[in-house]
Amino acid sequence: MLEVFAAMGAKVLERFPAGAPRGAWPAEEYAAERRAKGEPATVVMDLKTDAFLVVVPGRDED
Predict the structure, then answer these.
(1) How far apart are CA 4 and CA 25, in angstroms?
(2) Helix or strand or coil: residue 56?
(3) How far apart are CA 6 and CA 24, in angstroms?
(4) Which class for 36: exposed (0-12), middle (13-18), buried (19 or more C-beta within 10 A)?
(5) Closest CA relative to residue 18, chosen from 8, 7, 28, 4
(6) Model confidence at 60: pLDDT above 60
(7) Local confidence band at 52 (pLDDT 50, 70, 90 cut-offs)
(8) Closest CA relative to residue 15, chosen from 57, 56, 48, 43
(9) d(Cα 54, Cα 62) in Å, to the nearest integer?
């Protein structure tokens, strides 16, 4: 999985289980909070781990 994120150039901020009763909502809410603080957060689905991931573009220093 790490190689996928490295290829995407993304950093995972948080993970949310896809099987949760509210589905992607917690991930979307978290991403919206990060965007409100100026961070370009996006929600993606990791099918392999069945989780929603909140990611931001990778930085050179990471």
Answers:
(1) 24
(2) strand
(3) 23
(4) exposed
(5) 28
(6) no
(7) very high
(8) 43
(9) 16
